[in-house]
Amino acid sequence: MKVSPVQPRTAQWLLALLAGSFLIDVLLTLNNGKSAIGALPGAALMGLCALLGVKQPVQGAVGASLVLLMSTAFIRLSGTQPDSISINDILLTEVAAGIALVVLVVWRMPLVTAALCTTSLVGSAVLATFFRTGKWSATSNLRALQLGLLILVGAVVIGVYLRSVSGRRTETELGALIRRQWPLAAALTLLLFIDLRIGGAPNQMFALGGAVIASVCAFFAPRAPVVLSLVATAGIALSPFVLIVGGILPGRDGSVGPVLTEIAATMALISFTVRWSPRWPAIFSSAALALATWLAFQLRILLEQRSTSSTDEFGMYMAVLFVVAVATGMYFRSRDRERTQTVRSAVSGAQQSERLALARELHDVVAHHVTGIVVQAQAAAMVSAKDPQVAVQALAKIETSGVEALKAMRFLVASMRGAKPAGTSEATEQATTDLTADLRAMIDNFSGPQVRLNLDVPQIVPQEVGRSVLRLVQESLTNVGKHALGATAAAVDVVTSEWEIHVRVADNGTGRRQDPVGGSGGYGLVGMRERVELLGGRFAAGPADPVGWQVDAWLPVREEDTT
């Protein structure tokens, strides 16, 4: 089976996890004294083997197994006393590296190879648990086996899942959730190790029932925060009663049993609920969860018949943590709302820009041809009785204009759908490549007054500039045909200076029609001004001297040198 390579970000997260675990081991070792320092080199080498396993899982797993065995022998012979918050006498870094390597070999290697590598790692871990310090304790060893089995099953499940989704082009909803929530899962797992160390007896595994339920609910909270908060509330509230029915009391070594994981999961659930849920359901479920956590702690205190001072302290801590969790949820809720508004504004702006662009194209291209059709049809109706041949010629021009209008509509529809119409190429969709020829063809096909054309343009013009020049001349001539009363001639001047192209279209009309041909939408000048300003140019339109109407536009062809 082909497996996709490990992403660099995954390797970076693994490095951060191993570095954090090693830092905790160093702090515990320094607190325990010089007798524990001898276990650190083996833990560091295990971390390096895990990093090697990112690219070479088999070599990393085999190397880690050998390092664990050699470290066990060194610890036994030197009398080192390792201090660990995880499995007996195995440092947290070694546990984290082992988990990572099991996940990597199950994920990326053939099944037989993965099974052999996993067996090697488990075997060396079992030997380390039983023989590192030579301390034989049925209670301690039973707890280590329970925890080790739980860790192994979890690592294998993660590896199998990654193996099943490897190579998929689209990320599943569960995959996205795991990618987003795994730092929380790692933090809760670390607190679980600490709780187990505090518990001090194998039956403390059962005391973690409420904490485990709350942790699972916290992991999946983004999908249904209110429902999962209520489930966690029920689990935490019932966990002390389950212990009473089973005859299992919280830790009798002066502690009140494992509560760190439970509290952390509760705070995470409250934050998720406040962030993603409606106001009143969030208030109700968060208050119920915090109350259940506090009452569960109260019941543990009563079972141990301890003083109420611990209760008062815990209540104060819970109040502070509750405020922090709610504030965190409100912060992310506000940030999400702001991001949503930003995205909506951006989408609305993009839609408005698309609408304006489409409106300009419809007005500049289609309206030009339709106006020509109307003008030619009116002229044909006026002279058809006197000169039928002129009417026939007008009908031919009407047909040509209609075909051009249909082509323009097809181009617009195709551009909106992201496809090219049949019979078109990339060149036909781009701006003009021969501005002079296109302008002359436009003037020749104009059905209104006679047009004088004056051209002085370079051979190469920026595509958007050339396209805009064509549209400006086209729209201006359309306006001459629609609005210029009594116009007998028009002039089109397109002249290039060092920095810009100056477009001027003028007519000799004696006034403006109050009821223009085909009606007036009033958007022609607006569209031309927008088109020019988008390119950084200038636009002006108004009465000419002494008569007529004049349109001027200046379009930059290159950046001015300001130095």
From TrEMBL:
It catalyses: ATP + protein L-histidine = ADP + protein N-phospho-L-histidine. This is histidine kinase. The chain crosses the membrane at residues 12-30, 37-54, 60-78, 90-107, 113-132, 144-162, 182-198, 205-221, 227-249, 256-276, 282-302, 314-332. It comes from the Bacteria. GO terms for molecular function: ATP binding; phosphorelay sensor kinase activity; protein dimerization activity. Keywords: ATP-binding, Kinase, Membrane, Nucleotide-binding, Phosphoprotein, Transferase, Transmembrane, Transmembrane helix, Two-component regulatory system. It is an enzyme of class 2 (transferase). Residues 468-558 form the Histidine kinase/HSP90-like ATPase domain. Coiled coil: none annotated. Pfam families: HATPase_c (PF02518), HisKA_3 (PF07730). InterPro entries: HATPase_C_sf, HATPase_dom, Sensor_HK_TwoCompSys, Sig_transdc_His_kin_sub3_dim/P. Its EC number is 2.7.13.3. Residues 354-417 form the Signal transduction histidine kinase subgroup 3 dimerisation and phosphoacceptor domain. GO terms for cellular component: membrane. CDD domains: HATPase_UhpB-NarQ-NarX-like.
